[in-house]
Fold these 4 entries.
Entry 1:
Amino acid sequence: MKGLIPENILEDILGRTDIVEIISGYLPLKKAGANFKANCPFHHEKTASFMVSPDRQIYHCFGCGESGNAFKFLMRHERLEFPEAVELLAKKCGIILPQQSDPQAIRRDSLSSQLYKVNELAVSFYENNLSANTGLPAMKYLLDRGVRQETIKVFHLGLAGSGWDSLINFLRSKNISLDLMERAGLILPKEQGGYYDRFRNRIIFPIFDMRGRPLGFGARVLDNSLPKYINSPETPVYIKGRNLFGLNLAKDFIRDSDCAVIVEGYLDFMIPYQEGVKNLVASQGTALTLEQIKLLKRYTHNMLMVYDGDTAGEIATLRSLDILIDEGVKVKIVPLPKGMDPDTFVRKQGVTVFKDKLDSAESFFDYKLAVLSRRFDIQDEYGKAKIAGEMLLTINKFDNAILRGEYIKKLSETMGIPQQHILEELRKLKPSSSGPQLPAAPPADKKSSPINPAEKLLIKLMLEEKDLIETIMQQLTLADFSDARTSKIVSVMQELALQGKAVSPSLLMNYVSEEDAAQLLCETIFMPQLNELGREKAVNDCIARIKVQRLKSQLEHLHVQIKTAQSAKDEGKVNILMQEFQNLIKKGD
Ligand SMILES: [Zn+2]
């Protein structure tokens, strides 16, 4: 893990970073004694087994074993390479990294980085078009639609003009290859050879990822021609359904308000956003995907869905509802009048009325029941059975027995169906039968062999009190540790202590790159704390136990050697080994 970046800088960065702050930027952490806990972001679970230690600056999941320090968390969560994670944290705490030579240049030139760069150039090209004289009609169109000048800037809106090769020529002047432009989805091959610009005569909405890097583009016509919107195709950096429009701007507002308002289109996002409703994201599609929901869950578990008041919107909402409930999200629905979307609603009725609408959001139950009642005849027994059946599919998704009970009661009361009949139908449904199949949790037993508990406890104690490292290592040698993982950790601790360096767990992680050793390290940290007295006794017990075990294995080893020497009739060797055996036994007494 370590290498190109000097260790003192890594130490400095970790010293100025708070892992709780970093992780709470991605998922809601709850206090649990001296630690914090959350549902693990690395495997699917409904009860929290992901622990974060503010004292030790590490995290560990007892479900899947994933563990590490702040660097590791960013690497896993943001899918970063180690130098990228270091760079990100360094920037956060204002530390300037020494200029790197080759390795980073190579990394920068990876395909994704090249695509971001091409997209960035395209963003500025389209932006310039919009602010040029030729962009006046488009600018007027946007202003007439209620998009303010500053909003145009914030969202980097642009214009693709009428030329067939304007972007191609611009990018060529920047030494971008046609191949790369095509891979970025910006140009298309002509039948007769050559290429042309994908987007023409359209307003451009750049789509950024959470870190503000341009992934792709949405493009809207200026008149009523069709298709109204076209989008970038999927590219190595732009995968549909994996990002949420506007999250880069809204994530702090979402976390602070502990609620995300989900809308559909670009303007549905931009118009309320500029009027001050900033905890928004746009799904850019009719239904939310599981990946989008997981992305949002890093910031909040409370979501409000605002969808167009038409049939397609209703169906999309119902579909998203089930996935959200399955994912343990508290979701409410904000239905808008027919033919209205958040964009038109805010422009016609004002943002205050929109906020009131958000405040009076409906529960999933009332919303779904209302939609179903419009579709089926509630007076007819078949209609009634159909509605109840559909409602039960969603109710069945709740894990919590109390919530399920409440909804069953409510369903029974509102529809006039005896509770026992509802329960009978519910029993027919397999647990969470419908809905998306979630990937199973990774096996928890990825550890190779069990670790000697005495060795594990000693490591914990040494981590808690640096002075113990010397005391303990006066009585034990590295060879006394029976496991490659424990002896590796102890050797690093010893080395750091000798150098007079801090032996913090989060720092140790940088040296112990073996996955299972790092995991072991984190596990020990969440073992219960011992008091002063207990600690001294534990140290002595552990040392004694480790010595006994070591002796036992040495004797076993000698025993085998003696047997071999005997069968080889090597009298001299047998005698020497027997002597050794006697000495060892004496030592053990
Ligand atoms: Zn986990």
Entry 2:
Amino acid sequence: MLSDMNASTRKLQAEIARTQREIAALGPLRPGNLYSRLNVCGKPGCRCCRPKNPVKHGPYHYLSYTFKGKSHTEFVSKRDLPKVAEQVRTYNKFRRLVERLVECNIELARLRKEEK
Ligand SMILES: [Zn+2]
């Protein structure tokens, strides 16, 4: 029984070490959700607001996120879109890794309590 627990402890420690290495290896990241939308400029006679077959401008891309309790929406140029999308994917991966790290540490603390 005790050796079972030691095996579990070692497995968790290995998982923690692996997760920490994965976190350390992450590239640039930023939180948020990307979305795109078509806009109407409001200039009289513009194709976007003509009564017949209006053609709106865009799509324009935005990143919205909440950080330290404050929400932000930021314009993202078409050129920057792939880069920002990658940063958002990295952030989501970071969150999953942190969650796994915390989960493993909670489990490890629980096992060590039982070992006493
Ligand atoms: Zn317009």
Entry 3:
Amino acid sequence: MKTKLKEIVQPIVKWYQAQEKTLPWKQDKDPYHVWISEIMLQQTRIEAVKKYYIRFMEQLPTIQDVANASEEQLLKLWEGLGYYSRVRNIKKAAIQIMQENQGKMPTNYKELLKMPGIGDYTAGAIASISYGEKVPAVDGNVLRVISRILASKENVLLPETKKDITNQLQEIMPGEAGDFNEGLMELGEKICIPNATPICNKCPIQKYCTAYKENLTTEIPVRIKKQKRKIERRTVFILSYKNKIAINKRPKRGILANLYEFPNVLGEVTEQEIPQILKQWNIQFKNLKMKKSAKHIFTHIEWDMVAYEIEVKNKNTIWTWVTEQEMEKQYPLPTAFKKLHEKSNDS
Ligand code: SF4
């Protein structure tokens, strides 16, 4: 099995070196650039990350800029990418780098792991790409490619499977560690793709691939999820008074911490109950403009939302009342709420 994996190293390295590097974060191997792009790329498609990455680097070209940036600015730059703890950890890590390392990123895997928000994968990616350290960087793409090559039916969602694959890769890491890791990832993104039939006729390692030979490419990787998400029903109020809309800053802790939201309550409120609910917030109901619904899925919870777009007769002092432009420019509104508002603008 190990011999077989060793055989893929040079074909992957050569294939990767021949690929065009057009993505903005592939223009150099600067560890700051690799770090930010790798964090953004977790959970988000490459195409969607491009504009976020470019804007982030325009506004915050150095680690010092990140350390000095306000949380509001960082959340705004991250708005829509989700998993906001990632950007908070970037700031914490930047401050740590400024205080402990004179603004320079740590230069090896072990030291990188000590930074907030940097786990095995990201530390492996930065250490191998920027410093050529012989460490693997195992993400979902790599798990899929290796499982297929080995025709492994182990559940790739289990940490044991990831550990086993990481150990096997560790034994075969070449001098071109960064190119090998990036090659495996890129192969997983472009050719050995998820949720569809892989494009095996374009694969540089087809002749070493057991899943291909045994016609198992659609069955592998095996992904068995453990638990179901909790479903939470919510009613959201998009309240407008003249040209202003009510928004509210979420608590400092918990899901979507410190971002803004439209006023909302747990459970479903009927149309008849709306005036009563608004009264509790010292708001007088004028008329209901629209009712709509949407879902938003987080890691452990799913929000099943009904939203009412309502015109009201007065403002209160509990919330912040902003214009559309102010909301767009200054207030980070998570996608869960943004899509309700976009829907209402469209309709
Ligand atoms: S031959 Fe097909 S299944 Fe095997 S690694 Fe290549 S693309 Fe993936």
Entry 4:
Amino acid sequence: MIDFDYRAPTSLDEALALLQQHGESARVVAGGTALVIMMKQRLVQPELLVSLRRVPELDAIRADNGTLRLGATATHRAVETHPVVRERWPLLAETFHHVATVRIRNMATVGGSLAHGDPNQDPPPALIALDARARLRSATGEREVPVRELFLDYYETDVRPGEVLTEVLVPTPPPGAGWAWVKFLPRTADDYATVSVACLLTREPGTQRCRDVRLALGSAGTTPVRAEAAEAALRGEDLTPARLREAAQLVADAVDPIADFRGSSEYKREMAVVWARRALEQALARAAA
Ligand SMILES: Cc1cc2nc3c(=O)[nH]c(=O)nc-3n(C[C@H](O)[C@H](O)[C@H](O)COP(=O)(O)OP(=O)(O)OC[C@H]3O[C@@H](n4cnc5c(N)ncnc54)[C@H](O)[C@@H]3O)c2cc1C
């Protein structure tokens, strides 16, 4: 391991001041599950780690006026097991439940899962399907970014030097919305996905017609992917099995998977189509008629 200094401030202002003072030589650490591996591999070599773990309130999870607020240092396990999340945002509870193992979920945080920018991670597609926004603070101000716009490229996000992702705001899904989160794991149950798909779907009341749908995929390119053409092919249409199949087929052109030991790019593209269809079918089965 490289040498580095470590600070664990007890307020967000103190953390932001440290980041401003040390510029790009400092790095935020939350759960450390990703960063420490990258440091051991010499992929990043920060001189100072600024831990968020002692900043009070940053791990809060609460629902305010229909918006779920996930504090940046809330762990995956805390999200997965939170009663309000399980009851009102089951798509999120299901997603976080399937990240790695319980040991990782006890350490890894909501903020880390977004700021890390790894396109194989599970929470980003689910948060994109739910139309979540990320709140970012620096010593000089605050801004909000839709989660779908946070990912710029492979391990590259819009979290700027000096900024801390402080919380994620998730709106309540529309009444009667059906949801699905599926993760294709052909190797082991705690692996990263070969492909994962999150879906939120609503019908026009009393009909089979699609009012709205959001479909987002992980492990499908250099960033999480929103399958907009597939969504557009469904809005306003009757949700017949044939229509779902046709829409899922459009996912093939939206994804550009990276070949690795989980499969070739072509194989993953085919799996993206198959698992997108399954996600649409599951979401439809859960959507109120
Ligand atoms: C064995 C193993 C298996 C895994 N399997 C899965 C899996 O199946 N699915 C999955 O989704 N993920 C998986 N992961 C990845 C894991 O979810 C991530 O490592 C975790 O989400 C990162 O969160 P963290 O809090 O540990 O981040 P850290 O390691 O602390 O930080 C990661 C990066 O984000 C930055 N950062 C962290 N918090 C903030 C913040 N609030 N504001 C600004 N920047 C911040 C850090 O500076 C760093 O660049 C696995 C990891 C391991 C080690």
